[in-house]
Design brief:
- There is one protein chain.
- The chain has one helix at 28-31; strands at 32-36, 43-48.
- The chain has 50 residues and is mostly beta strands.
- The chain is globular.
- The chain starts with 27 loop residues before the first helix and ends with a strand.
Length: 50
Amino acid sequence: MYIGLNDLVKVRIKTSKPIPFDSYKKIRDNGASILIDETSYATVAACMIE
């Protein structure tokens, strides 16, 4: 599957450690984030947590 620039997709992200969060509907400031590539430090995606 190819995801183009500005496409909207629903994904599930698995992390090595738990990350505390709030849903975007409850608290917008805590329910939004960005993903950053750990090698290039480039922004990969903007997220809204359900």
